[in-house]
Amino acid sequence: MSAVGALSGGAAGVAGLLSLRRRAAPAPAPALATPQLPAIKCAAVPDAGQLVWGRQLRPSLLLSAAPLAARKQTLRPPAAAAAAAPAEEAKPASFAEKYPSLVTGFFFFMWYFLNVIFNIVNKKIYNYFPYPYFVSAIHLVVGVIYCLGGWSVGFPKRAPVDSGVLKLLIPVAVCHAIGHITSNVSFATVAVSFTHTIKALEPFFNAAATQFVLGQPLPLSLWLSLAPVVLGVSMASLTELSFNWTGFINAMISNISFTYRSIYSKKAMTNMDSTNVYAYISIIALIVCLPPALIIEGPQLMQHGFADAIAKVGLTKLVSDLFLVGLLYHLYNQVATNTLERVAPLTHAVGNVLKRVFVIGFSIIVFGNKISTQTGIGTTIAIAGVACYSYIKAKIEEEKRVSL
Q: What would the pLDDT profile of 164-182 be if each residue is shown by its tens digit?
């Protein structure tokens, strides 16, 4: 109606000026009659009705010419129209909205499944291609290709990054790269179950860093829950048949690296989603992993490493295995991130513990690793200690969140 008012007012002003002009001017001399131009209808103009030779028809004329149904629709109050719009546009709830528990359960299943398959394929590769630095780089190469492909099709849309964000992400990525390389060196030299038993000590390093590096005191109950972890790992290490110092030390370095990754991650809070953050971290970590792979293992690979592996399994299997293990590595990390975003801290903690149990159990079954009774008892105690620690820590975090 504002447009109607504006046009009507303008037409009235022009008509008044013409009327004054007619009164002031002398009577004109007789002249030939000017032919009357026919009215020409223009097309409908939104929010302005129909224009007839530059003049707008009054709303009453338009409404009287409109059908009854259209009149009712035109006269509907704006509030009623706004209330009717959501009802007309309402869509049925999606499967994820109807059954969130099933969707979360599927995410957990895929996380465990991909993690177990990754560990199995990874260890099988090391049995005929013992070059963990190179394989670590391949894991990241495939992941980076996956991320670049996703960005190219807009799934997800690439988040912009500047020098400030890079300064936050570089320490996280460096720690991620070191932890990744040392984990693979340990996987290549000892049994998968033993590496994961050593990596069960990661909560101990996290607690120590929180207390002594970040200066955040931890309750005594949390420290006491770590005692079974240390005891269990010690028992398992003393009688582990595949024990060697290279595997043990690299697994410990991996624990320290991932601990500092957690510390830097807390400081590197960005507005990017987890998928973009992990993509940038993978790219930076690949840059860190390439030099050690080329310097430490490059000469051996060129002399006999590739040739020996091809002679054992063939070129096709070597390439397909390396691509598959890299894809599994990226997917299980990505699914793990997406899974843990959907659950509460306590569920997160329980999920992490169960994942380690699944990996240790399946690796023993698949590879037929023989373990002593003491190793089995020590591993069980360590996992139980991790479960207690995770439960207590999750409860503390939940209480802090509620209090805020």
A: 889 999 999 999 999 999 9
Joined together, the tokens standing for residue 256 give 């320290």
Per the domain annotation, does 8 fall within a domain?
no
Spatial separation of the C-alpha atoms in residues 211 and 225, rounded to whole Å: 15
- The residues that bridge with 56 in the sheet, in sequence order, are 51
- Give the integer Cα–Cα distance in Å for 264 and 209: 11
Which H or E run contains 47? none
Q: What contacts 84, CB < 8 A, 6 or more positions away?
A: none
Q: How many domains does the chain have?
A: 1
**Helix, strand, coil percent values for the chain (each to nearest 5):** 75, 0, 20
- Helical H segments across 53-160, by residue range: 59-65, 68-74, 78-89, 95-98, 100-128, 132-152
Counting every residue, how long is the chain?
404
Domain that holds residue 277: 101-403
Query: Which tens digits make up the pLDDT trace of 244-300?
Result: 899 999 999 999 998 888 888 777 766 788 788 889 999 999 999 999 999 999 999
Q: Report yes or no on 316 lying in a domain.
A: yes
pTM of the model: 0.70
Helix (H) or strand (E) run with residue 258 in it? helix 245-267
13 pLDDT more than 50: no
Q: Which residues contact 81 (CB under 8 A, 6 or more apart)?
A: none
Q: Phi and psi of 50, rounded to 5°?
A: -105, 135
Q: Which uninterrupted H or E stretch holds 276?
A: helix 274-292
Q: How many CA atoms lie within 13 A of 113 on its CB side?
A: 8
For residue 374, is it within any domain? yes
Residue with tokens 């510390």: 263
Contacts of 211 (CB under 8 A, 6+ apart): 217, 218
Contact 378, 234 (CB under 8 A): yes
Per-residue confidence (pLDDT) for residue 70, from 0 to 100? 46
**Which tens digit of pLDDT belongs to each residue from 337-346?**
778 777 775 6
Task: Say if 210 falls within a structural domain.
Answer: yes
Q: What is the mean pLDDT of the chain?
A: 78
Nearest alpha-carbon partner for 176 in 139, 224, 129, 217? 139
